[in-house]
Write a structure and sequence with these properties.
Largest sheet: 4 strands, mixed
Order of helices and strands: HEHEHHEHHEHHHHH
Strand order of the largest sheet: 3-2-1-4
Helix content: 55-70%
Oligomer: single chain
Mean pLDDT: 91
Number of strands: 4
Low-confidence stretches: none
């Protein structure tokens, strides 16, 4: 059964946009049944007949509440989704694994995941995420609590890219994040200890305090680098 907050948002969107709303789809960790209260985002694909700023104004009264609920809507025109599904190949692959239609039609079934697009999106985004991680580590150096918080916050993104690596290799993608981290790290030739330490802290809602020269940080960063190298070098 769909997340209560997701259903509330879908009902509000139906009220706000009426017939202009084509679909609301829940995907990501909540759809997979592994969301962590207070930590996981609420990922929604929202398709409208058209997206104009005046129309968006209808949803403004709800926007703050959606943000507080951790809702991250992927808001697109229906025709835009038809043209740009290859741009969102990672998200589409996640939706194929687990999604729930909360309103309107199912826009997923007719879309094939393009493996080339999947690799290109992961390659492009991974380099940016690794750069952000390095800059964040520099900024947080000397503050073990800030370093740990950075690793925990970045973990869902790197888990997503490890899922992508597994899909590219045509391996089975495990249903739970810790399993993805372990299987993905093995695939790319990395040690999963740092990733798993961040996952344990995230799951237990406990602070992770590590220094810049800690093995947790080194193995985490190395796993991210090797994921990027694997995706970069991947050949069909």
């Amino acid at each position: 059964m769909a997340n209560t907050k997701a259903l509330e948002i879908a009902r509000e969107l139906e009220t706000d946009f009426g017939g202009a709303l084509q679909s609301v789809v829940l995907f990501g960790s909540v759809a997979r049944g592994e969301a962590i209260n207070g930590a996981s985002n609420l990922n929604l694909l929202v398709l409208l007949q058209d997206v104009k700023t005046g129309m968006l104004g209808k949803a403004v009264p709800h926007a703050a509440r959606w943000r507080d609920a951790g809702a991250v809507p992927l808001l697109l025109e229906a025709s835009e989704w038809q043209r740009a599904a290859d741009v969102f190949a990672i998200e589409l692959a996640d939706m194929h694994d687990a999604h729930e239609v909360l309103a309107g039609e199912d826009p997923i079934a007719d879309h094939h995941v393009d493996r080339r697009a999947l690799r290109l999106q992961a390659e492009r985004e991974l380099r940016g995420k690794i750069l952000q991680l390095r800059l964040g580590l520099l900024a947080a150096a000397g503050a073990p609590d800030r370093i740990g918080a950075l690793l925990v916050a970045a973990l869902p993104s790197f888990a997503t890219y490890l899922r992508t690596a597994l899909r590219l290799a045509e391996r089975t993608v495990p249903p739970h994040m810790d399993q993805v981290l372990s299987a993905g790290a093995r695939l790319v030739g990395a040690e999963p200890a740092g990733l798993l330490a961040a996952h344990a802290a995230r799951t237990d809602n406990k602070p992770l305090r590590v220094r810049l020269d800690d093995a947790v940080v080194e193995t985490y960063h190395t796993a991210a680098e090797r994921t990027a190298a694997y995706v970069d070098a991947f050949k069909e």
